[in-house]
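wait is this the right file?? whatever heres the structure
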């Protein structure tokens, strides 16, 4: 909004020339989302406490101490992030950019789905919300639509093709199969983030790390000069997604202020499904779907631990992990919650650095 209003005035007032720079607007998005989150965080948490009463249902798998420490904590804290992200993005991004609206659409749909899931859990005081089947149907419907719009928005030479890291011009032609591939990336990553959100602060920091990485990737991919220098496939127009990624970082920082152990609020499916969908759709747009699997490797491992556990138990009757997702496995082994969270953050940073290194290894 600010870009469309103030950028045309740059020729008369030089100060408005700043709005032509993505770096300036990305910084503005970070700070705006952070300030909004910090200002409205406490009132929103108080409101959720009053409305939810007993808060999010807590599964008793670690004993009474675990339940008592988290009992009564409200959920749906993802609302704080989403409000910050949407307001900040609408203020600082170029709203004529189609990619911005595609990502915001995915984020909104998955956020509403997550909100409804959290609502059912709170009102029923059970850990079962929306059925898994219905959740997947809604997610795939939205993701398929998003993948189609993404494909149609890409330059003709890139439509229906998947880029492979480490190769500068290697594209796998999928034709309309790209829609299924893109939808799968979005849905899988959305649920992977959802599975990771099980300990205070565990999911939000890796989300911010991934958002920072993809903000840089979007900026580079959208810039023909940088893309040519790095020998990565350019996708014009994606640079504007750096602003949205900045908003995710700012909103995430504000949420972490209240989610730091002991958490005052949980993200809930409201935030985790939406943020996973956000990152997945950005990866599809920037042609870095495979790199997302590296940068977001922590989320991938969390999801794989659940898949492995289910397959092993159904086929052999034995469990590979003491409990899945894998962060609960380490809880069962006696690791302190803060130890697990910080060590997983370290892993997320390492994986992000490995993922970013693919930009130069061509």
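ok assuming it is, sequence goes like this
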């Amino acid at each position: 909004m600010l870009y469309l209003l103030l950028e045309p005035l740059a020729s008369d007032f030089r100060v408005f020339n700043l709005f032509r720079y993505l770096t300036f607007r990305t910084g503005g998005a970070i700070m705006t989302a952070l300030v909004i989150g910090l200002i409205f965080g406490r009132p929103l948490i108080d409101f959720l406490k009053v409305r939810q009463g007993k808060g999010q249902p807590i599964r008793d798998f670690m004993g009474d101490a675990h339940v008592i420490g988290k009992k009564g904590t409200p959920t749906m804290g993802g609302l704080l992030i989403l409000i910050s992200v949407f307001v900040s993005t609408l203020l600082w991004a170029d709203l004529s950019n189609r990619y911005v609206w595609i990502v915001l659409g995915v984020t909104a749909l998955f956020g509403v789905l997550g909100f409804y899931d959290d609502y059912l859990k709170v009102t029923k005081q059970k850990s079962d919300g929306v059925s898994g089947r219905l959740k997947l149907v809604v997610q795939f419907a939205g993701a398929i639509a998003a993948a189609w719009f993404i494909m149609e928005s890409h330059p003709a030479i890139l439509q229906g093709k998947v880029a492979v890291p480490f190769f500068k011009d290697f594209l796998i032609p999928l034709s309309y199969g790209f829609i299924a591939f893109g939808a799968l990336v979005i849905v899988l990553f959305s649920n992977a983030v959802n599975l990771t959100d099980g300990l205070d602060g565990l999911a939000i920091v890796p989300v911010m790390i991934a958002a920072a990485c993809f903000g840089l990737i979007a900026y580079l991919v959208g810039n023909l000069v940088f893309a040519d220098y790095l020998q990565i496939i350019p996708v014009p127009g994606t640079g504007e997604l750096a602003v949205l990624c900045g908003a995710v970082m700012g909103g995430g920082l504000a949420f972490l202020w209240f989610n730091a152990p002991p958490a005052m609020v949980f993200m809930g499916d409201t935030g985790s499904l939406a943020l996973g969908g956000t990152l997945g759709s950005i990866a599809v747009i920037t042609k870095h779907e495979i790199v997302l699997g590296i940068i977001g490797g922590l989320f991938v491992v969390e999801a794989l631990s659940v898949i492995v556990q289910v397959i092993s138990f159904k086929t052999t009757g034995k469990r590979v992990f003491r409990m899945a997702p894998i962060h609960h496995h380490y809880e069962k082994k006696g690791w302190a919650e803060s130890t697990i969270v910080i060590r997983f953050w370290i892993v997320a940073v390492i994986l992000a650095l490995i993922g970013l290194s693919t930009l130069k290894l061509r």
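The chain has a mean pLDDT of 91. so i think its the right one actually
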